[in-house]
Amino acid sequence: MTGKKDSKLFVVTIALLAVYIFWGGTYLGMKIAIESMPPFIMAGARFFLAGLILFLIGRWKGAELPSAVEWKGAGIVGALLLLGGNGVVAWAQLKVPSAIASLLVATVPLWILVFNWIGGSKQKPTVGVMGGILFGLAGIAVLVVHPGGTGNQGVDTIGILALLFASICWSVGSLYSRNAKLPASPVMATALQMIIGGILLGIASLFLDDWTKLHLSEITLRSWIAFGYLVGFGSIVAYTAYIWLLKNAEPSLVSTYAYVNPIVAVFLGWLIADEQLTSQTLMAAVMIIAAVAIITMFRGKRPGATQPVAGNEKGKLQVHK
């Protein structure tokens, strides 16, 4: 019996490390991919390809073909999460370092709490949660009010506001998905969101002059490797590990990705992309990560409270990084 527990603990640890590292690395992956790929075309191709692979996996595992209503529900969720969320994050990284992008996206649990409360949720935030929200907003203010520079690249205020918009879209999409009609199979639900999100990102690229900037012969090997990483490790491997964790580990443990991913992203940005963070940015990083940690801990103590992970009682999951 002890052997089985130890074995499961080992698998949980490996799965958590996959989510921590691979999702944390997606910010730098996007940053490198868009060095020679237009952002919306890159994001659209990434999610469409990953979604198609997951769709085939879902069908292979016996998932039923989705209905028109399920396609519609997945389309709305995909538009909010992938077009308004991930697509804008990719675009914003033309203007801001990957480390700062990861920090602002880490505020998603904060926005979910705020919008859920404004929407009339019966589960009011505790004093600890409210303190975490206020602390997180203060951390955002440190970046937005007086953006600091990182190395040779200044932090663009428009880029920061775009990242806040993306985080809000992600939060609204996560809340909407709780009542959206999606396939019962988590893999199939995710596949539909990725496929439709990828198509919408491709359509958006037509209106954003992305195609005039696409030159296949000029795409570097470095960008192709980053793109492959995003599809394989970011959208398929890490997400599969995430799905497994939701069924085999405590939600409060799984939700820790929300504040571990930024730490990984900041470290990788410094190690690989030479993103030198200022003291102001580091202060904001500590405040935002601490705020998400506080919110996560206090929410975990509330029976029946919604965890800051993508899912619900019906197994509907949200696409992440």
In words, what does this structure look like?
- It is a single chain.
- Residues 147-153 and 302-317 have low confidence and may be disordered.
- The chain has helices spanning 2-24, 26-33, 39-60, 68-92, 98-105, 108-118, 127-145, 157-177, 186-207, 221-248, 251-254, 257-272, 279-300; strands at 149-150, 153-154.
- It has one domain (2-300).
- By secondary structure, it is an all-alpha fold.
- The chain is built from 13 helices and 2 strands, in the order αααααααββαααααα.
- It is 71% helix and 1% strand.
- It is globular and about 50 Å long.
- It has a two-stranded antiparallel sheet with strand order 1-2.
- Helix 3 packs antiparallel against helix 9 (186-207), helix 5 (98-105) packs antiparallel against helix 12 (257-272) and helix 12 (257-272) packs antiparallel against helix 13 (279-300).
- Strand 1 and strand 2 (153-154) form a beta hairpin.
What's a quick, concise take on this entry?
This protein has 321 residues and is mainly alpha-helical. The protein contains 13 helices and two strands.
List its traits:
321 residues; mainly alpha; two-stranded antiparallel ribbon; Multidrug transporter
